[in-house]
UniProtKB/TrEMBL annotation:
S-S pairs: C56-C61
Cofactors: FAD
Keywords (A to Z) from UniProt: FAD, Flavoprotein, NAD, Nucleotide-binding
Entry protein name: Oxidoreductase
Gene3D superfamilies with a match to the protein in the record: 3.30.390.30, FAD/NAD(P)-binding domain (3.50.50.60)
Chain ranges of the FAD/NAD(P)-binding domain: 20-335
InterPro entries from the UniProt entry: Class-I_Pyr_Nuc-Dis_Oxidored (IPR050151), FAD/NAD-bd_sf (IPR036188), FAD/NAD-binding_dom (IPR023753), FAD/NAD-linked_Rdtase_dimer_sf (IPR016156), Pyr_nuc-diS_OxRdtase (IPR001100), Pyr_nucl-diS_OxRdtase_dimer (IPR004099)
A GO BP entry: 2-oxoglutarate metabolic process
Organism name: Actinotalea fermentans
Keyword Amino-acid biosynthesis belongs to the record: no
Database matches in Pfam families: Pyr_redox_2 (PF07992), Pyr_redox_dim (PF02852)
GO terms of molecular function: dihydrolipoyl dehydrogenase (NADH) activity; flavin adenine dinucleotide binding
Binding residues for NAD(+): G195, G196, G197, V198, V199, A200, T201, E202, G283
Length: 498
């Protein structure tokens, strides 16, 4: 379980470091794999080419939520009589950007590096590539080559990168991805966003709050296509009420740089617009293009398909593992970290000091083994921090039917709940709505969606109900407090017929 270093005689030769486990990528997922495997006594080295903490801490979850929170608070205050009068202005742009800077620690990862040091994980800074079985070659930041040899396992947690559509002229307009948007210093007067998913809707909300004139160019016929249709409809209506120009069925055909340095955009239907900035938010792909996958017989660029423990079973020997965005299996931090805990524990169970004490892939008493990421199949939660927020877990009605389940969807508006009156509703906000999707064969909830202001915190109850497969008859005895918006649960069960 020790770490050994073999310095080579000349500086051009690589230094070889041998550890039990090598983790490639120190985002939230890589850090959690390293922690879970390392806490059992395995020696772990983690390779990171940019900042320890990865996308989520510096360019994704945290800065985007910092940009969104002030507008959400102001909107909610405006919805409450007695508080509304105290709101005399809009979002304070300078203070919001300063708060974002503080939340991302000024893009400095000292505190996370300190944490790695504290738990005994060896950080190797630089770009890593697989160089055959159990070997990772790193070009360190100072240019010195390092070879990491893993006695037992290499875990890939290199995340994902934005996918840019093939639009003529896109390269000339220096289009933003979510990185530039979340790190914004000068808010553009006008911003066009291509995409209708999570990044597009969150950034449209944030930049409208920050004072930009926002145009949303959505290829499809609705926003947030992965969610229940009423979610995208509510967000589209709210964005329009905020002054965002939401164009459905809009295809960007061509882009060109304007004399002023902005972007001239031509749409497939012949319409055109000039904007100061263009943000492209058209999805992400697993980051496996330049990882040396070909040295272990895998195809570069493809997601690293894993089994429920996180093992890349296409590679012989059980030494290659992966977790997080790079697997194409999850696309949120919380679910990636869940996979990381499972994978770190599975690696420890297979190779750690207690390996051999018991079966490594045994199911728990109820079939839910801690060494298998089963929630990925049945109960992934996600919150979209738009206004209204969208909070969903499990299957949509359509997805459940496509999976062959005989389901019934039950819909209830939040206006039916006393707690909503106290919480407050605004002029363009009716309080929102909720849906549960019930598997009629088992009378359990397989999906739930809440749409409304600050519904994020309502989600975990639904996640527990879905993972716990709590029968509706038993849920009936879970009494929500009055007057809270959790009474939506009572209304949903009544609407079902209890
Ligand atoms: C704008 C935006 C907002 C988001 N908001 C949320 C949110 O609110 N909630 C949520 O749950 N999810 C959110 N997500 C998704 C979330 O950011 C990702 O799911 C999460 O970051 C994935 O974590 P990861 O560790 O797998 O990958 P990453 O965070 O991408 O980490 C991978 C790390 O590997 C490093 N790396 C890659 N290749 C190499 C290499 N060859 N050598 C060395 N290092 C390498 C990278 O530098 C990076 O640090 C958001 C995403 C975006 C784009
Ligand atoms: N709050 C959160 O949990 C959160 C926030 C932001 C991002 N994320 C995650 O980050 C990832 C990336 O987000 P995203 O919004 O970029 O992806 P997404 O998959 O959510 O949405 C992509 C959108 O782009 C559209 N699109 C795809 N190709 C296109 C093309 N060629 N032209 C025009 N439109 C096109 C799609 O129809 C879709 O509307 C997602 O997996 C998301 O879950 C999560």
């Amino acid at each position: 379980m020790t770490e050994t270093t073999t310095p080579e005689p000349t500086t051009s030769e690589p230094t070889t470091l041998t550890v039990d486990v090598v983790v490639l990528g120190a985002g939230a997922v890589g850090e959690n794999v390293a922690d879970r495997a390392g806490r059992t006594g395995l020696s772990v080295a983690i390779v990171e080419e940019h900042l320890v903490g990865g996308e989520c801490s510096y360019w994704a979850c945290m800065p985007s939520k910092a940009l969104l929170r002030p507008g959400a608070v102001l909107a909610q205050a405006r919805a409450v009589a007695g508080a509304a009068g105290a709101v005399t202005g809009g979002v304070d742009v300078a203070a919001t950007l300063a708060s974002r800077d503080a939340i991302v620690h000024g893009w400095d990862d000292d505190s996370q590096v300190e944490w790695l040091d504290g738990v005994g994980i060896r950080l190797v800074r630089g770009r890593g590539r697989l160089a055959g079985p159990r070997r990772v070659a790193v070009t360190a930041d100072d240019g010195a080559p390092v070879v990491l040899e893993a006695r037992h396992a290499v875990v890939v947690a290199t995340g994902s990168t934005p996918v840019l559509p093939d639009v003529p002229g896109l390269g000339d307009v220096e289009a933003w991805t979510s990185r530039e948007a979340t790190a914004v210093r000068d808010v553009p007067a006008s911003l066009a966003i291509v995409g209708g998913g999570v990044v597009a809707t969150e950034m449209a909300t944030a930049f409208a709050d920050l004072g930009a004139r926002v145009t949303l160019l959505v290829r499809g016929d609705r926003l947030l296509p992965a969610f229940e249709p009423f979610a995208g409809e509510a967000v589209a209506a709210s964005l329009a009420a905020m002054g965002v120009d939401v164009r459905l069925g809009a295809r960007l055909a061509r882009a060109a740089r304007t004399d002023a340095g902005g972007a001239h955009l031509e749409l497939a239907d012949g319409a055109a617009l000039d904007v100061e900035r263009l943000l492209v938010a058209t999805g992400r792909r697993p980051q496996t293009g330049d990882l040396g996958l070909e040295t272990v017989g895998l195809e570069p660029g493809a997601p690293l398909a894993v089994d429920d423990a996180g093992c890349v079973s296409a590679v012989d020997g059980g030494w290659l593992w992966a977790a997080g965005d790079v697997t194409g299996r999850t696309n949120t931090t919380h679910q990636g970290k869940y996979d990381a805990r499972v994978t770190g524990d599975a690696v420890a169970a297979r190779f750690g000091p207690r390996a051999g004490d018991g079966p490594v892939d045994a199911d728990g008493d109820d079939g839910w083994s801690p060494l298998r990421a089963l929630a990925d199949h049945a109960a992934m939660p996600q919150v979209v921090f738009t206004r209204p927020e969208v909070a969903a877990v499990g299957l949509t009605e359509d997805a459940a039917r496509a999976a062959g389940l005989h389901v019934r969807a039950v819909d209830v508006p939040f206006s039916s709940v006393g707690g909503t009156t106290v919480f407050g509703t605004g002029p363009h906000d009716d309080g929102g709505a909720a849906r549960i999707v019930v598997d009629e064969a088992r009378r359990v909830i397989v999906g739930a969606t809440f749409v409304g202001p600050e519904v994020a915190e309502l989600l975990h109850a639904a996640t527990i109900a879905v993972v716990g497969q709590v029968p509706l008859g038993r849920l009936w005895h879970a009494v929500p407090a009055y007057p809270t918006r959790s009474e939506i649960w009572l209304r949903l069960l009544e609407a079902y017929g209890l």
